[in-house]
Amino acid sequence: MHKCDLERMSEKIRTFSKFGDAGHGGVTRYSLSPEALQARDYFAERMKAIGATIETDDVANMYATIPGSDPAAKRIVMGSHCDSVKNGGNYDGILGVIGAMEVLETVVEEGIPHKHPLTAMIWTNEEGSLYPPAMMCSGIVCHDFLPEDIAKNFKYEEKMQSTSVLDKQTTFGEMLENFKYKGDRKNRLNPDGYKCMFEMHIEQGPILEDAGNEIGVVDCVLGMFNYRVSFAGQSAHAGTFPMQKRKDALFAAAQALCHLHEEIDKLGYPELVYTTGELLIHPCVHTVIPDFVEFSLDVRHEKPEVRGQVLEIVQSLPQKEWAGCKCEIKEAWKRDTVYWDKKLVGYVEEAAKEMGVKHQYIHSGAGHDAQFAAYMMPTTMIFVVSKDGLSHCEPEYTSDEQCTTAATVLLNAVLRADAE
Ligand SMILES: [Zn+2]
Fold it and tell me: How far apart are CA 160 and CA 59, in angstroms?
């Protein structure tokens, strides 16, 4: 069994954490920013040092490839993203890039024989923090393989018009045009040139830590649906209008939200998660009774039957009485559960077993670039434990030893895929 190197992993983790250092232990590294450019320069420099060929595609996804013994064999690709959310951590995304780099470095340093070319990859703009949406460039590259209702959200020309959330003017396309690593469309990830894909990532939840495990053998990305629920009432003066005559849209929404929690919890599925993270209030003035409120509802579970039961509860809302207000619901978007390739999942499990590392099967509740790649080629993910389940924040943490263990699982799973 081959092993990755702790010191080399630590060096990469520390170095990447400087690019966009936000000053309190984490990073702000938006896609296509000067900080992202530093991270990519370092990626290119290290990969060139081991003799890898660097290629970039038309949305600046980066590919570093070392040859295998069979020049006709398809490439095996590993990768993730190097952009972060605002005040994010040093692990989300970048750890998958570091792990892929470490696999290539280990293979070259130790002269590990392999048949297929091996590629370490950086996806552009996974977080979509500055230029929405999330997973933009995997969506664009995998567009033609995606189901129609997902593909429609990732049209190249439309996404180039995505404007910066900071100035509402600069477009993703303009920034991309001047970005050092914008390359050629012919270099895009594709199923003719690539055999399969692995993405290593932090878990971003507490399941592994609570169970005393270090590695998650990921079997799927959870299916989900997202609804907008709105309430229309009547505005009036807060001081002059009697309570019994009011149609307060916020009071209606608050009642509906409590109702949703009660009814959904009654279903009794411990793995079901649902979230209201967005709330719009009009006119949002402290002396005016709100006349319009809309909230989001994000629901995730592996089984379509379970999501269906929650949907029935959501769909029953407009027929009920909500403080005299009119309730409307609208689907924002949905996706089915994406299952990883069984053979690749098996390789990850075998590698973890062989190493004697504590592991378990786990679902991914979050979306990742790999889920779009899965429509194009056999794909899987490896999770590594997140301290206190925290992510998308500066205290995000996984020890160097745990990161190295995960990279070793990745290496040995890749070598199994190479040997098949
Ligand atoms: Zn991520």
Answer: 9
